[in-house]
Amino acid sequence: MAYDNSRRDRPREFFTATCSECGKECEIPFKPTQGRPVYCRDCYRRMQPERRPVRKPRF
Ligand SMILES: [Zn+2]
């Protein structure tokens, strides 16, 4: 399988943004949205909540 290789070759558009958490300049693979915080990879990872079982709302 050469799937992993083709993934790397593919040019991706990156946008430069300033991390809302640490203020570092970072590149993100999506267009930064105004009014929404942008996080660098490190901060984004830190922000990820630990895996929790999702509770369905009861009706
Ligand atoms: Zn950051």
Description:
The protein has 59 residues and is α+β, with helices and mostly antiparallel strands. The chain has a domain at 11-47. The protein has two helices and two strands. A two-stranded antiparallel ribbon has the order 1-2. The termini are far apart. The mean pLDDT is 81. Zinc ion is lined by residues 19, 21-22, 24, 39-40, 42-43.
Q: How many β-strand runs? A: 2
Q: Number of helix segments?
A: 2
Order of strands in the sheet with most strands: 1-2
* Structural Rg: 16 Å
Topology, element by element:
Layout: H1 3-9, E1 15-18, E2 25-28, H2 41-47
Antiparallel strand pairs: 1-2
Zinc ion binds next to α2.
List key phrases describing it.
binds zinc ion; two-stranded antiparallel ribbon; about 60 residues; about 25% helix; alpha+beta
Describe the structure in brief.
By secondary structure, the protein is of the alpha+beta class. The protein is 24% helix and 14% strand.
